[in-house]
Design brief:
The protein is mainly beta and about 240 residues long. The protein has no helices and 19 strands.
């Protein structure tokens, strides 16, 4: 399973619904131990992401989700899903979750993915949780309290976060795309999809400082001499 996969289609079926989505933009990454997905539905500007560990045996993948969010709803309760996997000829796969929903409304969720990953390796490969973030503008430093996860694998990256506004309403944001390492301490992220329109189609050069194998700090320097600094800890 370890690879990066782009969604081709998603089908939702129950006793009241039978719908197939072809325009939901979703990337899903399986590393050696963890999986993460992030998606964006342009028609209503809805975004979501989820993260957790997984195990695989024959044609069944068991995902143990530890955190997910969609728009104004976040969920940090542990949940387990069994996915029945059918490999596709293009190295992608079809997954079926037959028992989503509630006791009174069973939902069958079917998703088809194509493999898009590359053999590229990097020191930041894996899944990470943000531990500290701040923004520097002149002599002012602003700390941010967000819940953010990020994954790098097979030449792709994705991230998702949640935060509360001044009215204590929750919000979800996400983004994904390709990345390449430029030496040992710099990488370029090329954003393909994001809930933030200013990021779409943009390349970001990021300075990376590895604080040992399980922590790194990324710094983005902007043309106006401002910068953002984020520190991440590896999930393991």
């Amino acid at each position: 399973m370890p690879n990066a996969y782009m969604m081709v289609s998603q089908s939702v079926k129950s006793n009241t619904v039978d719908t197939t989505y072809l325009t939901l933009q979703q990337l899903k990454v399986y590393t050696g131990d963890y999986m993460m997905y992030a998606n964006f539905y342009a028609r209503d500007s809805a975004s979501a992401f989820g993260i957790g560990s997984y195990s695989a045996e024959k044609d069944t993948v068991t995902e143990h989700v530890i955190y997910s969010a969609q728009d104004s709803v976040k969920d940090d309760t542990a949940r387990t899903y069994k996915l029945f996997i059918e490999q596709q000829k293009d190295s992608g796969y079809k997954q079926v979750i037959p028992d989503m929903g509630t006791q009174t409304q069973k939902i069958i969720l079917t998703e088809v993915y194509k493999a898009v990953g590359t053999p590229a390796k990097s020191p930041v490969d894996g899944v990470w949780q943000e531990s500290k973030t701040y923004y520097v503008k002149g002599k002012d430093t602003t700390k941010y309290n967000t819940k953010q996860f990020k994954a790098y694998y097979a030449g792709y990256y994705l991230w998702g976060h949640t935060f509360s506004d001044s009215a204590r309403k929750n919000h979800t944001g996400m983004g994904y795309g390709k990345f390449v390492m430029n030496g040992d301490n710099k990488l370029t992220e090329s954003c393909l999809v994001s809930s933030y329109y200013r990021l779409r189609g943009q390349d970001n050069v990021i300075n990376i400082e590895m604080n040992g194998p399980d922590e790194y700090t990324q710094t983005i320097n902007y043309p106006n001499n401002e910068k953002s600094v984020e520190t991440y800890t590896r999930l393991k």
